[in-house]
Design a protein that fits this description.
The structure is a single chain. With about 325 residues, the chain is mainly α. It has two domains: about 210 residues, Up-down Bundle (Alpha-lytic protease prodomain-like), CATH 1.20.1510; about 90 residues, 2-Layer Sandwich (Alpha-Beta Plaits). It is about 70% helix and about 10% strand. It contains nine helices and three strands; from the N terminus they run αααααααββαβα. The chain has a three-stranded mixed sheet with strand order 1-2-3, covered by helices on one side. Helix 8 links the parallel strand 2 and strand 3.
């Protein structure tokens, strides 16, 4: 487990460094070229990349926090810091997109004539498309390997940026063909809308984890398989699974023949735990409560065996 945690932290830190350096270069190029060439959409795209630099800096900070050991105030450790940071980044992206829409709309309705963007904007936009594609690919690989929602969210954000840059390119082409800057302004506004959409998606995913929700049904089915694979383990129920920054925290009950000894029940529970860990990676903790078979107490929370088979929410 410790080696996995160390490798995961290293991958998160590497992804953050790659992202911060790459986006800083692209942000500087796009904002500078946008101002020099008169492209509001390219400036907006550059501001978006500046936001990605902020994301990377916060990621570096979080990579250090999540390695802190558990303490009296944080008995589950500090891994939730990654999820909290992801939610914060979603808010930052949302307000950044809103500001872009406001600025673009203000420029559009001001009635002031604006120059058609120059060829410099085309060159830098093409560089941006290539650079963002490489960055998105690197974030996806490292995020998947680390099992980090934060890095995966960043990869998704950068993949969206590729399409944003294509939109900027389309606006530049239309502006050049029509001899006006209106298309460039419209695409700058659309970029803001796209950023807001991405921010909402990232926030909803982070919020699900903060609320101890889980959209992945496979771990529940794995519990049923593991219990059914151990002789003496019966009727898994009252199951609750939450994800803590890429690691699974699992709690559920099983029934055991009341004639069994405590030692037998302990051996059964250990076998079930081993079965789950053999089928599911990145398990943080498993807590199994043993009940005597025939106890018909009414359960008020958690999932029953049937619900685990079908998947929560079905």
């Amino acid at each position: 487990m410790s080696n996995k945690k160390t490798d995961r932290t290293k991958d998160i830190r590497t992804a953050a460094i790659i992202s911060s350096v790459g986006n800083a270069v692209l942000a500087f190029l796009k904002i500078t070229a946008g101002l020099l060439s008169g492209s509001g959409a390219l400036v907006a795209d550059g501001i978006d990349s500046s936001g990605d630099v902020l994301i990377s800096v916060i990621t570096l900070m979080v990579a250090k926090i999540i390695t802190l050991p558990a303490d009296r105030n944080h008995p589950w450790g500090h891994r939730r810091a990654e999820t909290v940071a992801t939610a914060f980044l979603a808010f930052a992206l949302f307000f950044m997109g809103a500001q872009l829409i406001f600025n673009s709309a203000a420029g559009f309705f001001s009635g002031e004539a604006q120059a058609v963007p120059t060829a410099l904007a085309f060159v830098v936009t093409i560089i941006s498309i290539a650079g963002k594609t490489l960055l998105a690919f690197s974030q996806y690989i490292l995020g998947k390997r680390a099992g980090s929602k934060m890095i995966k969210a960043n990869a998704k954000n950068m993949a969206s940026d590729v399409f944003v840059s294509f939109g900027v390119l389309a606006g530049l082409i239309i502006s050049a063909l029509t001899g006006t800057s209106y298309a460039d302004t419209v695409f700058a506004t659309l970029i803001g809308v796209w950023i807001i959409k991405t921010a909402i998606g990232i926030f909803l995913e982070a919020n699900l984890e903060l609320m101890d929700g889980n959209s992945n049904h496979e771990p529940y089915r794995i519990i049923v398989e593991a219990v059914n694979g151990v002789e003496g383990a019966l009727t898994p129920h009252r199951a609750r699974i939450r994800n803590i920054a890429g690691f699974w925290d699992i709690t559920f009950d099983i029934d055991v023949d009341p004639a069994r000894t405590v030692a037998d029940a302990h051996a059964i529970v250990s076998a079930v735990e081993s079965g789950i860990k053999a089928r599911l990676s990145n398990v943080y903790d498993i807590m199994i409560h043993v009940e005597p078979r025939g106890d018909d107490a009414v359960e008020t929370f958690g999932l029953s065996e049937d619900a685990m088979r079908d998947g929560p929410g079905k």
